[in-house]
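User: Second chain of the day. Same drill as before.
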Amino acid sequence: MLRRTGRRGQGGDVVDDPLDAAQERRVRAVLALGGVPQADLPDGVQQVRLRLLERAAKGYEAPCDVSAWAAVVASNLAMDWHRAKRRQERVGERLASLRQSEHPSGEDTSLLSLAVARGLDQLPDAQRQVVVLRFYADLPVRDIAHELGVPEGTVKSRLHSAVRALRARLHEDEVV
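Assistant: Same format as last time:
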């Protein structure tokens, strides 16, 4: 079982805390040295606490050296923070590269929206369903396949056919 130290919470109740003050300082130091911004340090400490509590809830033995275990978890959290930051930067770069120098007028986007809506109405139900889930609900192919109970290849095939039909419809209507 985890070693717990009592701490006074709001209202004077004793709250069990899996990290003592020295361990918390160590976790903060590891996170800070790992490049996590000062504003995110409290969240990192809470993540370490949460993982300790989850271990206990699952019935696992407490780590032999909670302080060392917490430092390793904090180090992993710092790496995760940097990965997430890089991923967010890459998404921002991709979105920036997709932006057009000229934005279409409100009339152009309304016309396009109406044409797409009409095109969706003309698609078979199965194709319309995957288009809506993929592009409007922003679900990945794997999740769509799981939700619909069909193989991923079927979802991809339906998407391909639907997009091809929509594209043809938009060209036919001279919208694009």
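Residues 1-9 have pLDDT under 50 and may be disordered.

User: Great, on to the next one.
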